[in-house]
Amino acid sequence: MTVREYHLYQYSIPVDSQLILRNRFLKRREGLLVRIKCGENEGWGEIAPLPEFSRETLEMAQKQTALWLKNWDAARSNNEKLSLDGLYPSVAFGLSCALAELKGTLHPTGLYQVAPLCYGDPDELYEPLNRMQGEKVAKIKVGMYEANRDGMITDMLLEAIPDLALRLDANRSWTPAKALLFAKYVKPEHRNRIQFLEEPCKTREESRQFAQQTGIAIAWDESVREPDFAVKAEPNVAAIIIKPTLVGSLERCVDLITQAHQQGLKAVISSSIESSLGLTQLARIAQQYTPHVTPGLDTLSLMDYQVLRAWPDSPLPLVGIGSEFVTELTC
Questions:
Q1: What is the CA angle 242-246-250, rounded to 5?
Q2: Catalytic annotation present for 141
Q3: pLDDT per residue over 273-326, tens digit each?
């Protein structure tokens, strides 16, 4: 009988002190790392509920993960395959990645060209855009300040960098009036260089009306994780955003990608501020399933350290098991 082994670790690393998640500052990013072994093969996964976005807490995820691992170990005697159904999204995703690595089904290389995050200064975009191969695409978070300010910055960037395409994310923060105020400050000739604006308004119907009125394409993000969501082609809808930590297992993510492609929509793999280990796995998933779409994974710069696996060319120091930032847990 093949021997199974598992370990569970917790990481806690400082992040940019200005990082705001909805209504709170995030000072440390915390999560779990799971390591499973079966004979000579092993796999790693990251389980990191995102505060203010995940429905499960880190403590809830830890308890569920520990129980699943015990059951997985016990299932070997009956040669059973233990289901991931019913698990919290972050738990299902992390365990599915560990299983995929164990089985050798996760792509070995990653799509490390990402859409850089910009906070309004075009100068900060020139260097990362010059390094990009193919399309030059960047992302701006909007909705945190005045809508007219967001519109002016968006238009300024598109004016300053003629071959730039932008992705915008409003996190459902605007009323229809504020969304239209934003659009008022973006010249009509620049709007088609906005690849999409993620969920501009508080409801899907309001976002659809905004897109129809302005000609600015939209993408579904929060909606993808709601029970009544169906992937379907609609006027002015360009993409769905898949944040695996918030969506669920790798299999669930692949199913959404497949549905999007069948409907003629882009599927964009996006970060939930995972550690470098989780980000490198997301890059591998993007390479495997969405190789022609730049993923939204430019969040490592928010961290003070990398964990266990390094992102290519990152200058951040790498910490591992046994450091003050990563400790082993008793399952």
A1: 65
A2: yes
A3: 999 999 999 999 999 999 999 999 988 988 999 999 999 989 999 999 988 898
